[in-house]
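Q: A reviewer asked whether we had any structural model of the full assembly, not just the individual parts. We don't, so I'm hoping you can provide one. Inputs are below.
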Amino acid sequence: MTRFTRRDLLLAFLGPAVATACHGGKPPALAFEGAILGANDSRGHLLRAGFKPTPQVQTRTAVLIIGGGIAGLSAAWRLSRAGVEDYRILELDAEPGGTSRAGSNAVTPFPWGAHYLPCPQPHARSVELLALEMGAAERRSDGQLVFDEAQLCRAPQERLFIADRWYEGLYPRAGATLRDLDEFARFQAEVRRFSALRDGQGRRAFAVPMEHGSDDADIVALDRLSMSDWLEAQGLRGERIRWFVEYGCRDDYGTTLQGTSAWAGLHYHASRTDHGGPEDLLTWPEGNGHIVSHLARRAGRRLETGVVVTEVRPLERGAEVVAFHADTGRCERVLTDHVVLAIPRVAAARVFPHPRLVAEASGFHAGAWLVANATLRRRPLSRGFPEAWDNVLYGSGSLGYVVATHQSDRHGGPPGATVFTWYLSLTHADPAEAHRWLYALSWRDAAELVVADLRRAHPDIESCIERLDVWRWGHAMIRPRPGFVFSPERRRASQALGDVHFAHTDLSALSLMEEAQYHGIRAGEEILARLGRQVDSLL
Amino acid sequence: MARGPREAAGARAATARTTALFVAVLLVSTCGLVYELGAGALASYVLGDSVTQFSLVIGIYLSAMGLGAHFSRYLERGLARRFVDLELAVALVGGFSVPVLFLCFGRVAHFRPILYAVVALVGTLVGVEIPLFLRILRRRLDFKDLVANVLSVDYLGALLASLLFPLLLVPRLGLVRTSLAMGLVNGLVGLWSTWLLAEELPALGWLRVRCAGVILACAAGLAGANWMTSLAEEALFSDPIIYSRQSAYQRIVITAGRGSFQLFLDGNLQFSSVDEYRYHEGLVHPAFAAAARHENVLVLGGGDGLAVREILRYPDVHRVTLVDIDPAMTALAVDLPMVRELNRSSLLDRRVRLVHEDALAWLADLPPEARFDVAIVDFPDPNNFSLGKLYTTRFYRLLRAHLAPGGATAVQSTSPLLARTSFWCIATTMEAAGLFVRPLHVAVPSFGEWGFALAEAQPFEIPGHVPPGLRFLSDALLPGLFVFGPDLARVPAEVNRLDNQILVQYYEAEWRRFE
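A: Here is a predicted structure for the entire assembly that you could use as a starting point for your response.
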C-alpha cells in the first residue's frame, strides 16, 4: 500500500463525520516531533520467518512461563503464593506487560494499552487478592472490601463531545429526541435485567471472569447473534443508541456491532454490577502498567526480557524449549517439567505446532489498534463540561483520549502539562486488512489523524502538543465475533496438552485483565495439582 | 469682475475654516473636562470619600487651569505651532493620566501626591489652550464676537463632556480607555489644526510626523489596555480593575472602589480590604484558641498573607509553612504595596516559609512524622474539580494524619446561608475522615454569612479565649459563632470523595441561584 491521501486516511480511520468536518481544512503543520514505537515486531517476525537458531547451552527449570503479559505474570504469582519459586518467565519484548505496558516521560507515566481495572465483584477472589496486595484495597473488620480513594477513578470520569461542546457522561443526551431517550432507557432496563439475573445454579448471566457466568442455553444462544441483530430484535434502531452500544464494542473488543457477538456486547454492560449501573474503577497514571510493575517486582530476576522462544517440544515428561536471547545472541535449550504458554493463540500455534492448535488457531481473530501518547505543554481550549478521565468524541472512529494526570496530584513539566493517551481500534471486518492499514501508516499519518480528530473539540490542540509518539498493536485484542465465544475450539483452548499449559486472555474470547489473570492462575493451579500440592483455588 | 467670485470663494473658505476651528475648540474643551472627570472618578474609586475627592480634584484642576492661563502670556511667537505642540502634550499627559494613575495605585506607597501632581499638570496644560486659541483667532474676528463664540463653544464642550462621560464613555469604554480615547482626540485635533492653521505654520511635514507619533502612542495605549483587561472582563466587576494578571493557575484581578480594594481569583471575590479582618479573625483565632500549642503552623492556600498576619500575632509561633500553588499570588502579597500594607508584610517575616505546590500533593508527600499544631486551610470555594479535590476525604485524612496531639485545624467552608448543603457537606466529609468538627460562622458584609469548620483529631470543647485587641472577635462573642440558627442549621449531605466530587455539584447548584 502506498502513501495515503489525506481524505483516505481520515475516512479509513476516523470515519465520514471527521473526514467531512476536516474537508478543505489545511493539513496540520505538525510543529512537534515523535516516533512510531511498537511491540517488537522484528522479533515477532523472526518467528514467522521460520528463524531456527541452534542451542549452545542446556539448562533446567521446573516451570517455564512463556510470555510476560498479565497471564504469564499471574501464573508466576500463583506459583509464588503457593511457595513454588523455581520458575522462569521469558518475555519477547524489552519490557513486560504485553498490551498492559506503560511508558513514562518528564511529565507523567502513561499507558500504552489497557488502563483500568474495574473493582471486582466478591466472586472474583483472585482480583480482590491482587487489589489487597497492591494496596488498592483494604479489608474492613466487617469483611467489607474498601478501595483506596486515591486509586479509584476520580470524578469526573467521562465526558462526550457532541455538536460543538463537551457534556458529562457517555450517552449523547444533548439533542436527543424523546425516542432516543426512550431507546436508551429500554436498553438500560435490559442491562439491569441481565445484571440482576441468576440462573438455576445461582450464577450471574454475565460475569468476570466469564467462566463464573451462566452457560444456560438461553444465555449461550446470544452468542449466535451479532450485537447488531440483538439491537434490531429489541427494536433499538436509533443512531444514538447504536452509537452508544457500538462504542462499548469498539472500546472493549475493537469490533463493530455486526462483528460482535451479542453475548459479548451485553457482557460489557451487564457483568460488573448487580444494578446495571456503571461500576467503580481502579486506575493509575500509567494505567495497567501499575499492575504489571507490581507483578514483575514479585517475579524479580526470574522475569527475563528480550527472549525469543522459537520452539516448544513436548517430551514424555515435561518439554524442551528453545530460547534465543536477542541481546546477547545466546541460544539456550531449556528442559522443563511444565510449560505455560502465556502468549496469543496464533503465536502459541507457531512455536508449538500441535495439530489441534494449528487447526484451531485460525479461529482466533485479533484486532489491530493504534495508540498515541501526546505530551501537552498546556491544556487545549475546551467548551462545555470540564476535562474528565475519559474523553470521547461522538461520531469519530477513534475512542477518544484518557488523561494520564487525572489520577495524580503531581506531575512534571509546566503547570497544565499532561499526556493524552488517544486510542483507535481498527474495526475492519477482515483482520488482515486492518493489519495492512496499520502498517502502511507513517508517523506523520498517525499524527495527522490524532490532530484531525482532536481539533474539532480543541481548536488549538496542535500548538499544545510537544511530542507525539505512536504505538501500533498488530494483534491487540481478541475479537468475540458472533459464534466464537461458545465455539468448541474456544472452549477447548484452555485444555493442557501433556505438560504444556495455556494461559492468555484469548482463551476467554474477551480481552480483559481479569480474564488474563484468570487463565494465568488456572494454569498455575494446574501445575500445582500436578506437583501434588493441595491448594485452595483462587478461581 | 473676474476677481469677484474668487473673493467670494475665498471668504467662504475663510468662514468654513473659522467654523472648523470652533469645532476644534469644542473637541478640545470636551477632552479637557473628561480628563477632569476621569481623575475625579478615579480618586473617588480608589480613595473613597467621593465628595472630598471630587472637590479636591476639581479645585486643583481649575486652579491649575488658571495657572495655565497665566503662563499663556509667556508664549510670544509662532502661536499656531505652539498650539499644535500643546495639543500633543495634552494628548499624551491627559490621555495617559488615568492609566498611569491606576498602575501607580497598586504599586507605590504614596499615591495621593502623584494623583494631585498629575491633575495639576493636566489642568495647567488645558488651561493654556483657550487663551492661546483666542490669540490665534484674534485677527479673524471682532473681539466681542470672538470671546462670545469661543467661550460659548467652550461651555458647550463642558456640557457635552458631562453628558458623554457617565452615559456613554465610562459604561462603554471604562475609565482607562476613556482617558486614552480623549488623548487620541487631542492628537487628532493637533493633526487637523496643521491644515486649519497651515498658513501660519513652518515645517509642516515634521509637525505632522510628530502628530502621527502621538496618535500612534495613544492608539497603542488603547490596544495595551485591551491586552491588560478585556472590556468583557471589566464588565464582570463592579469596580475598575487596577491589577490584572493571568498566572499559570488563575486570573488574578484587583479592583478598587469606594475606598477599598478587592482581590478576585478567576472572577471570584477572595477578600475586600474593608472587611477581610472579620473573615481572617474568624478563620484563625478559634483554631489557635482550640489548639494545645502554637509552635508549628501550617497554612494551605492563603497566599494573600492575610491569615498569616493574624497568625503572627502569637508570640509562641515558631514556624509558619504556607503552601500556595501559585507563586504569582504570594509575589503579589509581597510586592504590591497596597496588599503588603494590608497583610503587614507578613510573608516577609523570617518565621514564614513559602512552598509553591499543589496542597494535596504536598501533604501526600510529607514525611509521616511531620506534625502541625495548627493548620489553617484557606482555599477558594469548591467551584471546579481541581479545587473540589482539596475538600475530599482523601485530603482531610492526610490533614488529620499530620495534626500534632491536641492540634487544631480550621477550614474555610463557604457560606452556610447561600450554599448550605455545600457547607454541611464539608463538615460531613471531615467527620468521615475521622475529624471532630465544630462549625462556626461569621458575618462578612462583602461575602455574606460565612462559615468555617474548626476540627481536631479528638473530641474537644468550644474554645473560650481569643487574644485581646482584635477588631472583630472577643471572648464574649466567641461562643455565639458556634450557634447555628434555623436557616443555617445542619442539613444531610453526602461525603465528598475524589471519585464522586459531589461537593462541586452541590456548590454549583446552590450558587447558580444567585447568578
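A: Points you may want to mention in the reply: Chain B has two domains: 3-221, 274-512. The radius of gyration of chain B is 30 Å.
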